[in-house]
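User: Please look over both lines:
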Amino acid sequence: QWQCERVRLGIGLYGISPVNQQALMQVASFKTQILQLHHYAKGESIGYSRKAYLERDSVVATIPVGYADGFLRRNKGGEVLVNGRRARLLGNICMDACMVDVTDIPDVKEGDTVVLFGDSLSISQVAERLDTIPYEILTSVSQRVKRVYFHE
């Protein structure tokens, strides 16, 4: 039995367990909206340095989030959620924007919600893919990202 005057909640305060368990509910999310949609032909290049070539005719969404917002450049090739469905990031993560392949998302439109983490794409999943820890994902979100707090 332990007798303590203080408890360090750490990342548990955000609903993230430092050990692999599902007992906590994540309370933080990072969301944005589709800024633009463009149709590209197979073989066209997109993004910084134009090094990403499309393997098929594609619908590409531009979202207004980049590495200056704390969306790490290592996210290149990762996934986000668009209307609740996983969609792949294309090309490099730019300073203020990045591109998402939404070809397979039905009825996608400008203004639709994009989840960078939250919902069914947890901070722990993102951290694992980037070979880092959830702390880095959370603390990387820059001050220019608007915070919205909910109270139930």
Summary: The chain has one domain: 27-140. The two ends are 34 Å apart (CA to CA). The helical segments are 123-129, 134-140.
